[in-house]
Amino acid sequence: MDKAEILLYEMTVVILGSFNPKIFHPDWYGVHGLLKAEEVDKASIQFLNNDVSIFRLEWLKVTVGRDRFQMQCNQEAYFPVLKDLILGTFKLLEHTPLNHLGINRSFVCKFSEERSRSVIFSKFGASNAWDRVLNSPTTAKVFMKGTRADGRPGYELIMFETVPDDNFRFSVAMNEHYENPDKAGAAIKCMDVVEATWLDVQKRAKDRLKIILDLGVPNG
Question: What is the pLDDT of residues 24-79, one digit of tens each?
């Protein structure tokens, strides 16, 4: 049986609203006790001006523009810390108008057999429909959209695609998109969603990834 190996698991939170990028500095997080002093000292500041702020820690990348806030974490052990950091940020900036929230999970997976990846993509991609259009068609990317099962305003996206020049790896990205139910964009409403759905989002991601990966395992 060809069992897939998960090489990378990332979580990224994207919030659309109205921001002052210069606020989002490692020192600001340190002053308010959201980052440890040693993390602030080791932070790598890549950009800081009126239009964009970007800094990195070992486990975190923060990117903030005038209309987009993003925190990306590449270590699963820090996912709870990521949640606390986001909640702490907008507890302090509670009057910041927020319109949309995306909680994204990204995986890079690898099968030991090339056939296993091909089986998954053929099942989702219906490549035989392209036989009259292309020679030897294969599916390289699949992008699906669905309604939210929890009744919250928004939608869900799943995208998976092959890794170029590698016959065994592929990436899977899952986005849970929420629209702020508060028309005034109250930050607390978005943070309520983060608090309430954080663990469920991670469980759904792993359950769905298992369904996708199991398609690559031959029956019997």
Answer: 999 999 999 999 999 999 999 999 999 999 999 999 999 999 999 999 999 999 99
The rounded distance, in Å, linking the Cα atoms of 139 and 128 is 10
Number of other residues whose CB lies within 10 A of the CB of residue 124: 15
Q: pLDDT tens across 118-141, in order? A: 888 777 766 667 788 888 887 888
Whole-model pTM?
A: 0.90
Class of residue 4 by CB neighbours under 10 A (exposed 0-12, middle 13-18, buried 19+): buried
CA separation, residue 180 to residues 62, 175, 185, 199 (Å): 22, 16, 6, 19
Q: What is the DSSP string of the chain?
A: --PPEEEEEEEEEEEEE---GGG--HHHHHHTTSS-HHHHHH-EEEEESSSEEEEE-SSEEEEEESSEEEEEE--GGGHHHHHHHHHHHHHHTTTS-EEEEEEEEEEEEE-SSHHHHHHHHHHHH-GGGGTTTSSS----EEEEEEE-TT--SEEEEEEEEEPTT-SSEEEEEEEEEEE-SSTT--HHHHHHHHHHHHHHHHHHHHHHHHHHHHTTSPP-
